[in-house]
Every structure is written in structure tokens, then in C-alpha cells.
Write a structure and sequence with these properties.
The chain is mainly β and 230 residues long. The chain has three helices and 15 strands. Helices cover 10% and strands 35% of the residues. The termini are far apart.
Length: 230
């Protein structure tokens, strides 16, 4: 499984021996975790610096005690840094929320005809995963902005053999934000996954976070990044 998105927070266990990379929001509002256990910390010496970066993680997805999904990171090749700057989580409102599309066929599809599920034609045992070439900033719907609706929409997308998002659907919904998240994800461009030297279609998961930050929240965020004074 491939999950792609900005790391909203790098969290540590109380003993500092386990790292949690929170996607889609800060704890406890995240939607997915990439976990580095104590025995694997030496393999990821820079993991604590990944907060705010767009990364791609690959591996077997599981539910932590029946709760939120996670991938255990054991080898460096499971992680790739896609960008030094995370996608913006907040923006001035643009347009309106409009009707929510739960499953959309993205422009110029090549792999998934209308009516077929997102997984149709996808390869899961690829040799190398898809890599981001171009990202798109989600626009905050006017109605959601006015009503101060925040949250993280989790998108499952089919990246085709040309590196385009051919089909996408919402697997974790937030009222009034789904359509904007889908629209942004459909504009991403990738270097496609490869198998036996050929490009193939595969599935990725993309958490899209929407946050409204006022002056007080911005000051708090800046304060969180300042190390304590001894």
C-alpha cells in the first residue's frame, strides 16, 4: 500500500523510543500513522525532521487496535521525501462547496472506464512506487469556510500508467469538503509505478487536510516550534 501526503506532526512515545508520523492532522485528529519502532530508529536518523514535508510511505497497512490505519516502517526504502514544503492546509475560500462527489472519474482517464471500481487494473506488487512530479493546492469551499468546517478527507486514487490520477474516491468524508479534496487530487501528476521495467497503474491514499488558522492559532503554531528556554 502507498500513502502520500504531508506529515502534519512527528510525535514520540513517552519514552522517546517510538516515532509516529501523523498524516492528515495533529494527534488525535490524524487519519493515518507511519510508525518507526525502537528497533528500527537507526534506519531513519532524519525522521524527526520530516514534520511539514510531503513524503511517500509504502508497506502493509494495518489497523492499530482496531482503530486508525498505520504502516510500520522497517527499511529506508519504504520512505521517499517528495517535497521540502508541505501542501498548504488552509487557504482563502474559493467557490462553493457544491454537491459532494464520492467517486469521480478524473479528466482524461486512461485506465478506468466509467462504472469500474478504483482498483480496476491496478498493480499492487510493483518494483518501484509512483513518485510525485506536480502537486495541487486544495481550495477551501466558501460555504465550509464561512461555517468554520475543518477536517481531513482521505482519498483513494488510481494513478495510471501515464502518471495521471485516472479515478478517485472518498474513503473518509468530511461534509462540504469532499469535492474540493477530490478536485485537488485529480490534478496531481506522478512518475508512474514500475514493474519489470514497465509503467503500471497502482493505488495510493492521499489525506487532504483543511484547517482555518486565525492569528491566535498561528502564534501557537510558531510557539510550538520554538525550543524551550533553559
Amino acid at each position: 500500500m502507498v500513502v502520500l501526503g504531508p506529515v502534519a506532526q512527528v510525535n514520540e512515545s513517552e519514552d522517546g523510543q517510538t516515532l509516529f508520523l501523523n498524516f492528515g492532522g495533529r494527534y488525535p485528529y490524524h487519519v493515518f500513522n507511519a510508525v518507526v519502532l525502537r528497533r528500527n530508529l537507526k534506519s531513519f536518523p532524519e525522521a524527526r525532521s520530516w514534520e511539514g514535508k510531503v513524503i511517500r510511505v509504502c508497506g502493509k497497512m494495518q489497523l492499530y487496535k482496531g482503530g486508525k490505519p498505520e504502516i510500520i516502517l522497517e527499511r529506508p526504502e519504504q520512505v521517499a521525501i517528495e517535497s521540502s514544503v508541505a501542501l498548504p492546509e488552509s487557504a482563502a475560500p474559493t467557490g462553493s462547496g457544491g454537491p459532494v462527489e464520492q467517486d469521480v472519474l478524473c479528466p482524461d482517464p486512461s485506465e478506468a472506464p466509467v462504472g469500474m471500481p478504483v482498483e480496476a487494473g491496478a498493480i499492487h506488487d510493483f518494483d518501484s512506487p509512483p513518485q510525485v512530479i506536480k502537486t495541487a493546492r486544495p481550495q477551501y469551499p466558501q460555504d465550509a469556510f464561512v461555517n468554520k468546517i475543518e477536517g481531513t478527507v482521505l482519498i483513494e486514487a488510481l494513478v495510471d500508467a501515464q502518471g495521471r490520477v485516472a479515478r478517485a474516491r472518498v474513503i473518509q468524508s468530511v461534509a462540504m469538503l469532499d469535492a474540493a479534496a477530490l478536485h485537488a487530487c485529480c490534478q496531481w501528476v506522478f512518475k508512474p509505478a514500475m514493474k519489470h521495467g514497465r509503467p503500471v497503474a497502482t493505488i495510493i491514499h492521499m489525506p487532504v487536510a483543511f484547517r482555518i488558522y486565525g492569528k491566535e492559532e498561528q502564534r501557537k503554531q510558531r510557539a510550538d516550534k520554538v525550543p524551550p528556554t533553559k
